[in-house]
Amino acid sequence: MRARYGVPLGITALGAAGLAYAAGYEARSFRLRRVTVPVLPQGARPLRVLQISDIHMVSGQRKKQRWLQSLAGLRPDFVVNTGDNLSDTEGVPELLDALGPLLEFPGVYVFGSNDYYGPKLRNPARYLLEKVQGRHGLNGNPPVEGAVHNPWELIRDAFDTAGWVNLTNTRGRLKLDGLELAFAGLDDPHIKRDRYGKIEGGPEADADLSLAVVHAPYLRCLDAFAADGYPLILAGHTHGGQLCVPFYGALVTNCDLDTDRVKGLSTHKAGGHTSYLHVSAGCGTNRYTPVRFACPPEATLLTLTPRP
């Protein structure tokens, strides 16, 4: 009997151990990614930019809240929030408490689909199927029916009151130590809310630096930003693949971006221009799939330096 059942029992035990690790440890093993991007004009002092993304706050996530609060100790020059702040309709107070210290710094933000709509229970295998079929979000799939609506207006009002700049299909500005920073942002392309025509035209001539911000890094948006000449694009959404294969990487990106650029700093070329692209792996998960494997939750401190 041992010979007959030993292998299946061993596989079951290994799977259980992997699930316990992915849910009990790695999903709460928060990290800080540090990257340097040479995009500033000559002679400018370096700028420290904290990018946070895909928080997916659920009530009771005390460790995540404390970690987010601790990021204020980095003293960034400004914060970029690339969306998907919620995974719980009741999570707004705890989200704002976690972000409270960061709201003391200048910031900009865009929203993702999970800011607008509550999460749904899905079979994770559907992400692989949609990748094969080229279907992601509402881009090729039928519209979502019966979705739970999140109280996203409360988040918007709190961010706006703190002075963070709303980049929902619009442009915005920050002035830091004599530098004029211009931003162009899009609403979430994952649910077809992006309207590039409202912000087209490229970097602003009188700004020292223009940055592009979007939640989901769909190629149509990256192409438009790069072709218009933005030197740096910031995005989130992918969760870094969330469930990755050690020594191989991500299997899916949940959009049409290739898996080689699922997280971290890379480049994107379009229209004869090359932009830096930074995709945050985010620090949360959908409340119904609270696991990460070979892809720890993260925030990123980008140090912007002068161009060569």
In brief:
By secondary structure, this protein is α/β, with parallel strands linked by helices.
Instruction: Tally the helices.
Output: 7
Mean pLDDT: 92
H/E element sequence: HEEHEHEHHHEEEEHEEEE
Shape: globular
Distance N to C terminus = 69 Å
Number-wise, the strands total: 12
- Give the radius of gyration: 20 Å
Structural class: alpha/beta
Low-pLDDT residue spans: 11-16
Question: In what order do the strands lie side by side in the largest sheet?
Answer: 1-12-2-3-4-5
Beta-strand content estimate: 15-25%
What profile does the largest beta sheet have? Answer: 6 strands, mixed
Helical fraction equals: 10-25%
Structure description:
Helix 2 packs parallel to helix 3 (92-99). The protein is globular. Mean pLDDT is 92; it is low at 11-16. The longest helix is centred in the N-terminal third of the chain and has 23 residues, at 2-24. The relative contact order is 0.21. The chain has 308 residues and is α/β, with parallel strands linked by helices. The chain has seven helices and twelve strands. The chain starts with a helix and ends with a strand. Strands 1-12-2-3-4-5 form a six-stranded mixed sheet, with helices on one face. Strands 6-7-8-9-11-10 form a six-stranded mixed sheet.
